[in-house]
């Protein structure tokens, strides 16, 4: 273990790391899906929304059951951002009784509708593909950016009547 690893571990001992937050979010999403009863799914509403962040307006999908207030879920997308498959994951989780926000992680560079990353044709070994990905990821590299975004996303969820804040 390097000195950097020691510092990283000691600095974040009381806080969740970004990796831990992703693991926790994924575990929550998978658990929600695993315990689902297909007959119990409810009708959901999907709305394109904008979330005010410290760095501007983030386009996102807000998906929730038609009726009532439900626990909030924040989905961090994979490298390909907010796209139909991520919206589908949000719909499945919402159908299980959750209010879900799926933000565009690349909002600083581009609206989700203009992102030209195709997961079916993308290769992490292809330098041209990686250059396109880096173009979008540039705004995510500064320390604390994800944490600032997360705070804005949670504040958005907390402000929605479809979210049970308990």
Helix content: 25-40%
Radius of gyration: 17 Å
Quaternary structure classification: single chain
Beta-strand portion reads 15-25%
Mean pLDDT, to the nearest integer, reads 84
Write the element-wise H/E pattern from the N-terminal end onward.
Answer: HHEEEHEHH
Helix count from the secondary structure assignment: 5
- Shape category: globular
Strand order of the largest sheet: 1-2-4-3
Give a quick summary of the entry:
With 166 residues, this protein is an alpha+beta fold. It is 37% helix and 17% strand.
Description:
The chain is of the alpha+beta class and 166 residues long. 37% of the residues lie in helices and 17% in strands. It has helices at residues 3-11, 18-34, 84-94, 127-137, 145-158, and strands at 44-53, 56-65, 72-74, 99-103. The chain has a 4-stranded mixed sheet with strand order 1-2-4-3. The radius of gyration is 17 Å and the shape is globular. The model is unreliable at 3-14 (pLDDT under 50).
Which SSEs are present, and which pair or pack?
Elements: H1 3-11, H2 18-34, E1 44-53, E2 56-65, E3 72-74, H3 84-94, E4 99-103, H4 127-137, H5 145-158
Parallel strand pairs: 3-4
Antiparallel strand pairs: 1-2, 2-4
For this entry, give a set of tags.
single chain; globular; 5 helices; 4 strands; 166 residues
């Amino acid at each position: 273990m390097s000195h950097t690893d020691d510092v990283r571990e000691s600095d974040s001992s009381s806080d969740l790391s970004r990796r831990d937050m992703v693991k926790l979010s994924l575990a929550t999403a998978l658990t929600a899906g695993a315990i689902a009863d297909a007959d119990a799914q409810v009708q959901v509403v999907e709305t394109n929304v904008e979330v005010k962040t410290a760095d501007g307006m983030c386009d996102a999908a807000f998906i929730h059951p038609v009726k009532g207030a439900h626990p909030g879920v924040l989905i961090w997308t994979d490298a390909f951002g907010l796209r139909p498959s991520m919206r589908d994951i949000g719909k499945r989780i919402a159908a299980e009784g959750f209010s879900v926000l799926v933000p565009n992680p690349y909002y600083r560079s581009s609206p989700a509708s203009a992102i030209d990353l195709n997961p079916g044709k993308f290769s992490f070994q292809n330098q041209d593909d990686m250059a396109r990905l880096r173009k979008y990821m540039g705004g995510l590299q500064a320390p604390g950016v994800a944490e600032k975004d997360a705070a804005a996303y949670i504040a958005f969820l907390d402000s929605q009547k479809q979210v049970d804040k308990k």
